[in-house]
């Protein structure tokens, strides 16, 4: 298994269905949820566990894979603290039917969902992601319903892929969602083009972290985008140290080169 943070050892995970959302703070994505455990690579044997952490929208009765570690709360006992997570795509026929007939897909009832699975099979969701035109094979669907299905699946899948991608760069869920809120579906493209943009736009991301990402994706140390970012970084650092925004060009360049 490839871990989200590029580590050699497998990261602890809990797979399960969200049974209840006990608490959520919309300002920082922090949530406390009850999960019905269906799989784990840990020694946890109970059927349920309280999962805590900062992550985006989660839906009751939906399956997720949570990565993190166990903590012992002094009042509430053992909990699983999340570093990152991803939604588990349904693979069984019944799972796909339940997914497509959920509130996420207005106008798509259970009978229609069953017909989609009958025509496209248990891999219906993957097939729709790869080629939305396969829905034309489902004759009970009109254009409006096909559009609802495609747009909803793309939205959910796109966000999931972005968050997983950010996790691979080492961002935890809270910061990952702050980044996603800023750039939306363009997030990974922005990072690939100029990871230093994060320093200007995202609170909590500094030059060193952006520089590490730049190295991962192959941006050269003498590239124009890095030099510009290093200069801006040193202007900011100098203003913090000296208390003013004036700095001689030769001093600035010398400090930027050492960055």
TrEMBL record:
Keywords: ATP-binding, Helicase, Hydrolase, Nucleotide-binding
Domain ATP-dependent RecD2 DNA helicase OB-fold residue range list: 13-90
InterPro entries noted in UniProt: RecD2-like_HHH, RecD2_N_OB
Domain ATP-dependent RecD2 DNA helicase-like helix-hairpin-helix per the UniProt entry, residue ranges: 156-246
GO molecular function, one term: helicase activity
Superkingdom as given in the UniProt entry: Bacteria
Pfam families xrefs: HHH_RecD2 (PF14490), OB_YrrC (PF23139)
Name of the featured protein: ATP-dependent RecD-like DNA helicase
Source species of the chain: Enterococcus faecalis (Streptococcus faecalis)
Lineage of the organism: Bacteria, Bacillati, Bacillota, Bacilli, Lactobacillales
């Amino acid at each position: 298994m490839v871990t989200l943070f590029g580590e050699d050892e497998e990261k602890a995970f809990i797979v399960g269905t969200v049974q209840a959302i006990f608490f959520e703070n919309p300002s920082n994505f922090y949530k406390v949820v009850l999960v019905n455990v269906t799989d784990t690579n840990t020694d946890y044997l109970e059927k349920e566990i309280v999962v805590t952490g900062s992550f985006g929208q989660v839906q009751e009765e939906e399956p997720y894979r949570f990565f993190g570690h166990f903590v012992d709360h002094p009042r509430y006992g053992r909990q699983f603290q999340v570093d990152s997570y991803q939604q588990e795509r349904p693979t069984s026929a019944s799972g796909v039917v339940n997914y497509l007939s959920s509130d996420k897909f207005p106008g798509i009832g259970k009978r229609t969902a069953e017909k989609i699975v009958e025509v496209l099979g248990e891999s219906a969701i993957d097939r729709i992601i790869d080629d939305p035109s396969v829905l034309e094979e489902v004759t009970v669907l009109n254009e409006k319903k096909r559009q609802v299905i495609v747009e909803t699946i793309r939205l959910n899948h796109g966000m999931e892929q972005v968050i997983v991608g950010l996790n691979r760069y080492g961002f935890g869920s809270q910061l990952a969602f702050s980044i996603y809120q800023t750039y939306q579906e363009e997030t990974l493209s922005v990072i690939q083009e100029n990871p230093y943009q994060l320093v200007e736009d995202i609170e909590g991301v500094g030059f060193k972290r952006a520089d590490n990402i730049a190295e991962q994706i192959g941006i050269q140390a003498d590239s124009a985008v890095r030099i510009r970012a290093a200069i801006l970084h040193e202007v900011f650092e100098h203003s913090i140290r000296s208390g003013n925004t004036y700095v001689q060009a030769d001093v600035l360049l010398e400090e930027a080169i050492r960055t």
